[in-house]
Amino acid sequence: MELYELSIHELQDKLREGETTSAEITASVFGRIDAVEKDVRAYITLMRETALAEAERADLAIRKGEMGALTGIPVALKDIFCTKGVRTTCGSRILNNFIPPYDATVVSKLRAAGAVCTGKTNMDEFAMGSSTETSFFGVTRNPWDLERIPGGSSGGSAAAVAAGECIAAFGSDTGGSIRQPAALCGVVGMKPTYGRVSRFGLIAFASSLDQIGPFTKDVEDCAILMNVIAGYDPRESTSVPEAVPDYRRFLGRGIEGWRVGIPKEYFVAGIDPEVEAAVRQAIRAVEGAGAKCMEVSLPHTDYCVAVYYVVAPAEASSNLARYDGVKYGFRSEGNRDLLEMYKKTRSAGFGAEVKRRIMIGTYALSSGYYDAYYRKASQVRGLIKRDFDEAFMTCDVILTPTSPTAAFRIGEKTDDPLQMYLSDIFTISANLAGIPGISVPCGYTESGLPIGVQFLAGHFQEGRLIQFASAFETHAKIERRRPRL
Ligand code: GLN
Asked: Most Cβ neighbours (<10 Å): which of 155, 194, 223, 379?
């Protein structure tokens, strides 16, 4: 096995034993990037030189016996995290030349933990999409089938982990953008509770829904990364001052007697039969581990996509008002006056999907329509949240498919926004309710595409999710395949 194929915990064992160095690991990852990135295109910006320097520093620290939580481990960052001195585009032309003067809190925490940053990964423009096709920087391809999308919007991060172009990665999830690409690329992806991880320095899409989380090769790595990024941040007003447990302590504990809710509304028409079969198999696996599965109802499920596509665009239209060509980012030149500059900058700077969201959101917030749309959607959001509160009175975790289908073909849904929006039918509810969710690989289609199963739990129950996912991983014994690239 090559070093780039190993997990964080396997590499940490080797680093501790002195069997390898961060310089070797980092060289292995960049060797892999040189071999496959031309096909996968997971990255917008590679940070080879700084990564190699960081690896040298990590090796020095290890030799001195100062091994931090991530010392010497190469990780990739979605290009939505501000990185001091490194271009941060959010997948958009309008931020094509934006170099942030500061690091996002998550980035500072990774640096403090000793991580090596490999680069900034591709994403749908402003995280709006489910396929990474709306990026100004081109499409990322699914490492399992280069004709297919990797999911989105954090498709570059998911693809990079699956392809071995980093050891682990980070993304953001507003309606499924971590869990859905994780499922489609055959890796683990977690969206923590709203407020668990600081969003300071995360470029905002929909501020009441956005949350940061990890992409990893297994559940143990997920626990390791959650230990590093979770926690209160005085610079971020929605981060919650709740104590962070050691998530590793939840690994391997078993789930004997746990009650698992299977929401009946999530097994309906539209779900691919192969996905459904794999998820039913996952239900049997958790039963085999001693859990008891029961049907639960989330009666407002039908409204989730509609509510999300009012709330998210409304918040986006407000968040994206700042991109006007004045303070930073792209500016259209040669205009007669300020208004023309605004107009031309925004017309040329944003892509079609972002413009569609800005128009929907501005309309939903405009006077005369606010009550009918944004207010109404916020009220229904309350009902969706209550569905989960009630379900979690009778069960410990909820199990659903992550995505209704495996990876679809590039271009298949680009002309049909509604079809694209339905890719997130099973993931959006967790963002609306603010609860944590994790997607874990649970099998393959006959043609060899990965399938994911999603586990959801109550607010701040990430530990419980990790415990459950780790037991699932042990009992389901899903074959660990690697994409042939
Ligand atoms: N696909 C959803 C959207 O387009 C969710 C994206 C996300 O989670 N950032 O908005």
From this structure: 155
